[in-house]
Amino acid sequence: MPPSRNRISSRPSQFESKASLRRHPVITVAGAAAFVLADTALVNRQLAKKAQRDNPPKGRFIEVDGVRLHYVERGSGRPLVFHGNGSMIQDFESSGLIELSSKRYRTIVFDRPGFGHSSRPREVVWTPAVQADLFRKALERLGAERAIVLGHSWGAAVAVALAMRHPSSVQALVLASGYYYPSARTDAATSLPSALPGLGDILSYTVSPIMGRMMWPAMLRRMFGPSQVSEKDASFPMEMTVRPSQMRAAAAEASMMVPSAFIASKCYGGLHMPTVIIAGECDRLIDIGKQSARLHDELKQSSLLRVAGAGHMIHQSATSDVMAAVDEAADRTLQ
Question: Which of 91, 224, 256, 290 has the highest CB neighbour count under 10 A?
Fold first, then answer.
């Protein structure tokens, strides 16, 4: 029997869809946007899982106050601890700094909370001071008290906080490409939406990873400039940095840069251990005259190494100079 001509299709016609769009444009567009965002979040989640499978932990874990910290330990001798700019253990590893330092020091490098394979509980505001308290306990558990502490960029703020809050845990400081005094920061302002509860989760699981991948080459050129992007950096796992969880952690830390520097800058006079400050003369992210040089003027026990032609990623482009800064700090503790 031929099909009935009066059968009514359950699928809306093109005319009906257009009519619905005209009647409820906001609802229709919002529904379509929600579908796209949900699909994007699913893709980003799968990419994050793949990144973690392709880049498994290389070190060990220690749990402190509910935080699972990933760290690597190499060499023997006096303890030397690295804190990076949220760029994970692989940043110091690819630079060659871990290999160099482990020939003379017991080198311990952490993935800071929320970066790499370290967890970052959401109920905590991870200021430099809070992270410093966490690492003080971790170092105590590892038997690495009285360490030489190196901090790069945002990690320098953590190193300074550790020295100010727990001076007995720090023998000497090496501060590389740090941000120490409040100033206008466009990156801090643009990161604020991604750091907000709710909205930050939406952005971090949808738009931010896509933007991160697109902007990665330009960001590297700015961070390394005027030097060429180091060939050593080719082994760095970019796919780990654009995971939604790490994008949100990075945004949270960028948004608190200015207030954290404002608070810390009131207390630098309390630092009395040997301090070596090192910065690239051509840093495109930080004005070293208003940051590193100013801190050097305030800390009478400090020395300042200005590396000509180097940019922000000084540990990558001037690795031997950073290693020399570590050795200088270590030697000064023996004087």
Answer: 91
**Burial letters for 42-53: b for 16+ Cβ neighbours within 10 Å, e otherwise?**
eebeebbeebbe
Measured between alpha carbons, how far is 171 from 180 in angstroms, rounded to an integer? Answer: 20
250: left (phi over 0), alpha (psi -120 to 50) or beta: alpha
* Half-sphere CA count of 12, side-chain side, radius 13 A: 8
Strand, coil or helix: 279: strand
Quick check: is 173 in a domain? yes
Q: Output DSSP code: residue 215.
A: H
pLDDT tens per residue, range 110-123? 999 999 999 999 99
Q: Which residue's entry shows tokens 């100033």?
A: 183
Our CA angle for 51, 57, 62, nearest 5°, is 135
Distance CA 228, CA 220 (A): 9
Residue 158 lies in a domain: yes
Q: Is residue 71 part of a domain?
A: yes
Residue by residue, DSSP assigns 232-274 as GGGGS-HHHHTSHHHHHHHHHHHHTHHHHHHHHTTSGGG--S-
**Domain for residue 200, yes or no?**
yes
Residue type, 201: D
Residue 248 phi/psi, 5° resolution? -70, -40
When divided into structural domains, the chain yields a total of 1
| Full domain range(s) for residue 69 | 54-332
